[in-house]
Design a protein that fits this description.
The chain is an alpha/beta fold. Strands 4-3-5-12-6 form a five-stranded mixed β-sheet, sandwiched between helices. The protein has a three-stranded antiparallel β-sheet with strand order 10-7-11. Strand 1 and strand 2 form a beta hairpin. The longest helix is centred in the first third of the chain and has 25 residues. The chain starts with 5 loop residues before the first helix and ends with a helix.
């Protein structure tokens, strides 16, 4: 086989992104049988198996993983070339990853201007811990990601530094409890070790009263008065109390917001990265105005 069929590669990527043949067929505008036939032809022409089917669903083989990584780059180059020749605005889809607490703080201010400038680009968002998002860009499963940088091993492009704040709901005083009850994101959250280390260094006893993977869970736990939490300033609800030395709480290190972009990112992904950079560089006072 001397050439790869880009249409078949697009179908393979659609299967991976949507998790099955039916959803992939809807995305590419073909029948399920047509998609299945094209993938079978691709496997036959390459002489390798690309997908494994089981009761748990469909998964890429090792060869399939390698081909999909190449396919994403090939299709990105094709899209860039066509866009350049046509002189039009970029189109297509972009897969963005970020922690959930970044949605309102960073994505919402940027999406309005991005949608106005690039109405033909579709954005899909995956929310997860930063530790999980970085490798997904490397594997080609995401086009770009906003994430909290690991302060001991910073990677990606530094976009912003944010203060970390101790927070509690109004009308409650959980900070008076000993040990101090905390609402935290799960183990793997990059802020969590720094929160624990700061309290330990200050000799303040603490316990995890609530572990949750969602901002909604953190909000509920704090609002009930069960516990306090620590969040970046950008994600802190305005109505919550800011705590500090007066409540016997130590200062926390700043958090760093990073951006990682796939090496072969499409023009659409690069435009989104540019929009996020611009939005995060805008002072809050200017945004409010």
């Amino acid at each position: 086989m001397r050439h790869l069929d880009t249409e078949s590669l697009g179908m393979l990527i659609a299967i991976v992104d949507t998790g099955g043949f039916t959803a992939a067929a809807e995305r590419v505008g073909r029948t399920q049988s047509a998609v299945s036939a094209r993938i079978a032809q691709l496997e036959e022409s390459l002489g390798v198996r690309l997908l494994e089917r089981s009761r748990r669903g469909i998964a890429l083989t090792e060869t399939g993983e390698r081909l999909v990584a190449h396919a994403r780059r090939l299709l990105a180059y094709e899209s860039e070339a066509l866009s350049d020749l046509k002189g039009g605005t970029p189109e297509g889809s972009v897969r963005l990853g970020m922690p959930e607490d970044y949605i309102d703080a960073y994505f919402t201010p940027a999406i309005a201007r991005f949608a106005a400038a690039y109405p033909r680009i579709e954005i899909s968002i995956r929310c997860d811990l930063s530790k999980a998002l970085e490798p997904e860009v490397e594997r080609g499963h995401l086009d770009l990601a906003l994430f909290t940088r690991d302060l001991s091993r910073p990677t990606g492009e530094l976009l912003k530094r944010e203060k970390m704040l101790w927070l509690a709901a109004r009308g409650h005083r959980p900070e008076r409890n000993d040990p101090l009850p905390l609402a935290l994101f799960p183990t793997g959250c990059r802020a969590r070790p720094h929160i624990a280390a700061a309290l330990d260094a200050a000799g303040r006893g603490w316990r995890v009263a609530c572990t949750t993977s969602s901002m909604g869970g953190i909000h509920s736990a704090v609002e009930t008065g069960l516990c306090i939490t620590a969040l970046p300033e950008c994600a802190a609800p305005a109505e919550w109390r800011r705590l500090g030395a007066a409540e016997g709480l130590p200062p926390l290190p700043d958090t760093e917001v990073g951006l990682v972009l796939a090496p072969a990112a499409s023009p659409a992904a690069r435009r989104l990265a540019e929009t996020l950079r611009a939005a995060m560089a805008t002072p809050k006072a200017a945004e409010a105005a």
